[in-house]
Amino acid sequence: MIKVTLRGPNGTFEQEVPENSNLVVLAGLKKFPGLRYSCGMGRCGKCASRVVRGAEHLPPPDWKEERVLGEDKLQEGYRLMCQLYLTHDLEIAQDKVPIVPAYRRVRQKV
Predict the structure, then answer these.
(1) What is the DSSP annotation of the chain?
(2) Strand bridging mode 90-93 / 2-8
(3) Which one is predicted more confidently, 73 or 107?
(4) Average pLDDT score over residue span 47-56
(5) Looking at residue 2, what is its pLDDT?
(6) What is the pLDDT of residues 29-44, one digit of tens each?
(7) Which of 9, 32, 36, 62 could form a disulfide with 96 if both were Cys (CB 3.0 to 4.6 A apart)?
(8) CATH of 2-109, one of 1.10.357.10, 3.10.20.30, 3.90.1150.10, 3.40.50.1360
(9) Residue 97 and residue 46: Cα distance in Å, rounded?
(10) What phi and psi, each to the nearest 5 degrees, are found at residue 9?
(11) For residue 77, is it left (φ>0), alpha (ψ between -120 and 50) or beta?
(12) Which pTM does this prediction carry?
C-alpha cells in the first residue's frame, strides 16, 4: 500500500491506497475524499496539486500536463493527479482556488 497525504483548503487528509492507483479515479469512487477534480482527462486543471514530497518517484510530465500546467507551474512542482498512477508514497497540496490552465492564461494576456 502507498501512503498519500493531501493538504487542502479543508484540512489534511491521509490514506493508504493500492499501488498503481489514480487518485482522481479513487475520488470519483468516493474512496479518496477531499481531492478536487472535474474532467479526469487532463484538460481542466482542477486536480492540479503541488507535490510536496515524493516527486522523484513520478514519471516526467506528459503533454497534457505541459499544456495545462505550463512551464511555470511545472517548475513550482505542480502535477495533474488525473495523469498519475502512484507507485510510492506521496504528499500533495491543493490550493484553495484551482489553477487557471496555461492555455487560458496565454489567451488572457492577448
Answers:
(1) -EEEEEEETTEEEEEEE-TTB-HHHHHHTTSSTT---SSSSSSS-TTEEEEEE-GGGSPPP-HHHHHHHHHHHHHTTEEEGGG--B-S-EEEE--SSPPPPHHHHHHHH-
(2) parallel
(3) 73
(4) 98
(5) 97
(6) 999 989 999 999 999 9
(7) 9
(8) 3.10.20.30
(9) 9
(10) -65, -20
(11) left
(12) 0.93
Distances (CA, A) of 40 to 20, 52, 84: 16, 21, 11
- Residue 110: pLDDT over 60: no
As a whole number, the mean pLDDT across the chain is: 94
Q: Give the cell for residue 41.
A: 482527462
- Please state, in angstroms and rounded to a whole number, the distance separating the CA atoms of residues 101 and 5: 24
Taking the CA atoms of 92, 93, 97 and 99 in sequence, report the sign of the dihedral they define: negative
CB distance 110 to 67 below 8 Å: no
Q: Residue 106 has what pLDDT?
A: 65
Q: Which three cell numbers stand for residue 35?
A: 481531492
Max CA-CA distance within the chain? 47
